[in-house]
Design goal:
Blueprint (H helix, E strand, L loop, with lengths): L28 E2 L24 E2 L4 E8 L2 E5 L1 E3 L6 E2 L10 E5 L3 E8 L5 E8 L5 E5 L2 H4 L15 E3 L4 E6 L4 E9 L2 E6 L10 E5 L3 E7 L6 E7 L2 E5 L21 E3 L4 E8 L2 E9 L2 E6 L10 E5 L3 E7 L6 E7 L2 E2 L22 E5 L4 E8 L2 E5 L1 E3 L6 E2 L10 E5 L3 E7 L6 E16 L13 E3 L3 E4 L4 E4 L6 E8 L1 E8 L5 E2 L4 E6 L3 E8 L1 E2 L6 H4 L2 H8 L5 H10 L15 H9 L6 H17 L7 E3 L12 E3 H13 L11 H15 L4 E2 L9 E3 L3 H5 L2 E3 L2 E4 L7 E5 L5 E8 L4 E8 L3 E4 L6 E9 L2 E9 L1
Parallel strand pairs: 34-42
Antiparallel strand pairs: 1-5, 2-3, 3-8, 4-7, 5-6, 8-9, 10-13, 11-12, 12-16, 13-14, 13-15, 16-17, 18-21, 19-20, 20-24, 21-22, 21-23, 24-25, 26-27, 26-30, 27-28, 28-33, 29-32, 30-31, 33-34, 34-38, 35-47, 36-37, 36-39, 39-41, 40-42, 43-46, 44-45, 48-49, 49-50, 50-53, 51-52, 51-54, 54-55
Length: about 775
């Protein structure tokens, strides 16, 4: 018995990537990732750091070898010291990060092809030593189970990319000790005094309450030791502003300094508000040892006066005990086109404090919340009331303006990161807009060309019980001033209309959003029932298409149609088909369903109803609470049902399912439940289709994306109804801003809250991946 569904053959959606780059024209290729700060870069994910730069070794090949620390890392490939063009996993433009697992610090060779955009990683060998341990008579004091242990991690060093030395700082009690340098957790390779292989022990004397800094040079094998203070904290009157429990706390980590192994100095940058402050240096988390003005032990407090919020760079010299500091005013302003509405005398004014941000020490960001009117705005980040240092889109110094498009007013929190120079928006209060349209295909989604507005629809919002009819000519209504949260929007359709999107939609509101509700009315489409197709009128309609008769019969033979005995039925002539229909009855429900399905397919093929939508309340084909489907989808689903139900009789468990489908197909074949292509005769609808809507659609194979470019949302329809579909939309930095998993034959809408700029949509279906460029205006 044949059991193969061929009605809805899976067709892979193929979007051609329009992203073409001149491979020979790169000025640089780097590997920005979360290991960069360990390799000597100022911070991670830095596309312009020379420490991770590749060298061009051929027309399309870039290579380099790096010592990668132990750990689980991620990275990407960036061109020209920027994120403008980058490649992720599997060579995808703006794709996901590339994972890299390094069990032990290793020398890895990276090779990148500008043709395939793929990275090949080759293991060269261990990264110098895989481990360097100070084995000696002090190890038991550090927590080892005994002394002279070459494999105790408590006295192991870490590789420092800046100095290319293995370093470590250990709190060793005061006393005289001896030690050696051991390699790879074994005595097989060890170095003593003067870097001599298997040489004599190295002496070490530690004063009380001090720390020993070890620095091992893997080239000379010489280890040097420096005595440093155990811990350094700035205790003063500003500590409560930094998050300490109180002021003048010698053990608060919020004001502790960090030791720089290169300079042998303790330092830290601390953000402080304006004011007159005082502080001292405390050692080892206690007042027992402290230093004041001039490096005097127990001396007077050190004064610090700040006229405005500032970043103070503190440097403590453990030899002289003197603290020096540099003050840089903390002024971060968002100059832009919205400054006049916010009270500034002009736009693009970096000195207007109406758009000034403040430093949030707990989150380490500069933040400000502003009420922005509706409109299309642009802005940048400017420091110190000047354009001398400013950052634009993607954190680029002096880069392009950052766009902000608002269809309604919104209260927005701007967070600026002074390391990455990115601005993150959080909508505190925003609008939730609703729109109703006539949904001619009944799928519940606003597709291209469905521009007939339903004006007489009422909506209610769950949290406020607001009940407002849509009355404006655009068909939109916005519930403004809403905080982020979960909302339920309910729609009440005019008389004679049904909702194809469900009577309600639930949304987690985090940015301005528009929800679309489809409306349909039911009526006749010219379908004929089984009785018509088993008599001479049906025969005449079939014979009127001589060039399609064999094709239509071949389509019916592909379906899992069954006869009264549950055997396959493959019609070769119309007479066989009509006789088979005449004998169908409910004794074998699979036979009855087969006949109804054949009649529906004849309505589609012979009477040219094609893929019209029908009312099918049990299917939920388009999603939960969507009570409509189409002829092709019915054919696919019922064919699958018949594949496993050809022997169904009255006592079988799934007879009820078959009976429900028989009713759906019978109602359609009796011309009762077809979605009308046009609205009911009613003055409450307005057609708003424009020439731009027609021209801005992009056809790619069996898929369509529209409009592109878009000023509101994008619609993407995967026309093939078989196979799972994965969709991701990424901005130019590779950040995923929308994702969905579903099936073909659906329309996906997204992008209403996207800021203007370039995006990439990625579609994965049947194991194949494709991308397409989108432009949000």
């Amino acid at each position: 018995m044949k059991r193969m569904s061929t009605v809805m053959t899976s067709v892979t959606l193929l979007l051609l990537c329009i992203f073409n780059h001149n491979a020979a024209g790169q000025s640089t290729v780097t590997l920005p990732g979360n290991f960069e700060s360990e390799m000597g870069c100022a911070y991670d994910w830095q596309p312009d750091c020379n420490a991770t730069r590749l060298t061009q070794t051929g027309p399309t090949t870039w290579e380099a070898t790096f010592l990668i620390p132990k750990g689980n890392w991620e990275y990407k490939v960036a061109y020209d010291n920027a994120w403008t063009e980058n490649y992720g996993l599997n060579g995808i433009p703006y794709g996901p990060n590339i994972p890299l697992s390094v069990p032990l610090a290793s020398m890895l060779h990276f090779s990148f092809s500008t043709v395939t955009h793929l990275v090949t990683v080759t293991y060269i060998g261990p990264g110098g030593p895989s481990a360097v341990v100070m084995a000696g008579s002090f190890q038991s004091e550090l927590g080892c189970t005994g002394d002279w242990q070459p494999d105790c991690a408590a006295s192991s060093l870490m590789y420092d990319y800046a100095s290319k030395l293995w370093t470590g700082i250990f709190a060793i009690p005061g006393g005289s000790y001896e030690f050696k340098v051991t390699i790879d957790n074994s005595w097989s390779e060890n170095y003593g005094l003067g870097g001599v292989l298997n040489g004599p022990n190295i002496p070490l004397t530690i004063p009380t309450n001090k720390k020993a800094l070890f620095r091992y040079n893997p080239e000379t094998h010489i280890v040097t030791t420096t005595i440093v203070d155990y811990n350094v904290t700035l205790a003063g009157s500003f500590q409560s502003e930094l998050g300490c429990g109180a002021d003048w706390q010698p053990d608060c980590p919020m004001s502790s300094l960090a030791f720089d192994v290169t300079s042998n100095l303790w330092n830290k940058d601390i953000h402080l508000p304006a004011g007159n402050w005082e502080f001292k240096v405390t050692i080892d988390g206690s007042w027992s040892e402290n230093y004041g003005a001039g490096g005097v032990q127990g001396g007077p407090n050190i004064p610090l006066t700040l006229a405005e919020p500032s970043t103070v760079s503190f440097v403590y010299n453990p030899t002289t005990h003197i603290v020096t500091y540099t003050v840089n005013p903390d002024i971060v302003v968002l100059p832009g086109t919205f400054q006049i509405p916010l009270g500034c005398s002009g736009n693009w004014d970096p000195a207007c404090d109406k758009t000034r941000l403040t430093y949030d020490i707990k989150r380490d960001v500069w933040t400000g919340t502003f009420d922005i009117p509706a409109g299309y705005w642009e802005y940048k980040v400017a420091l110190n009331h000047s354009w001398s240092e400013n950052y634009g889109q993607w954190g680029v110094p002096g880069g392009p303006n950052i766009p902000l498009a608002l269809t309604t007013p919104a209260t927005i929190q701007f967070d600026y990161n002074s390391v990455t120079h990115f601005v993150i928006l959080t909508y505190k209060k925003m609008a939730l807009c609703v729109s109703a349209f006539y949904d001619a295909n009944g799928n519940g989604y606003k597709d291209w060309g469905e521009n007939t507005i339903m004006n007489n629809v009422s909506f209610s919002l769950s949290d406020t019980n607001r009940f407002t009819p849509i009355t404006d000519t655009s068909g939109n209504f916005c519930f403004g001033g809403l905080p982020a949260g979960k909302y339920t929007v309910k729609a009440t359709m005019p008389l004679k209309y049904y909702s194809s999107s469900g009577d309600s939609q639930i949304v987690q509101l985090s940015q301005p959003l528009t929800l679309y509700f489809g409306a349909v009315c039911l009526g006749r489409a010219g379908a004929q029932n089984i009785s018509f197709w088993m008599n001479k009128k049906g025969q005449a309609a079939f014979d009127s298409l001589p060039w399609q008769k064999d094709y239509i019969l071949s389509v019916l033979r592909y379906f899992n149609l069954v006869d009264v005995n549950g055997n396959d039925f493959d019609p070769w002539t119309y007479s066989e088909l009509a006789k088979w229909m005449q004998q169908s009855n409910a004794r074998n429900m699979a036979y009855k369903l087969s006949a109804e399905l054949a009649a529906l397919l004849l309505n589609s093929q012979v009477l040219m109803l094609n893929d019209r939508a029908i009312y099918a309340p049990i299917t939920n084909y388009w999603g939960e609470k969507h009570d409509f489907t189409n002829i092709n989808s019915v054919g696919w689903y019922v064919n699958q049902l018949l594949m496993n139900a050809s022997q169904t009789s009255s006592e079988k468990d799934n007879r009820k399912d078959l009976e429900a489908w028989v009713k759906i197909l019978n109602d359609a074949n009796n011309d009762l439940t077809f979605v009308q292509l046009n609205p009911c005769t009613d003055p409450s609808v307005t057609s708003t289709q424009t020439k731009a809507d027609i021209e801005n659609r992009v056809h790619i194979g069996n898929a369509m994306v529209w409009p592109n470019p878009s000023r509101s949302c994008f619609n993407l329809r995967v026309s093939d109804g078989s196979g799972k579909v994965g969709i991701r939309v990424m901005d130019v930095q590779g950040k995923v801003v929308f994702s969905s998993n579903g099936s073909g034959g659906k329309t996906y809408s997204f992008g209403e809250g996207f800021t203007p700029g370039l995006y990439f949509v990625e579609i994965i279906q049947n194991g194949q991946r494709s991308t397409h460029k989108l432009l949000k205006e």
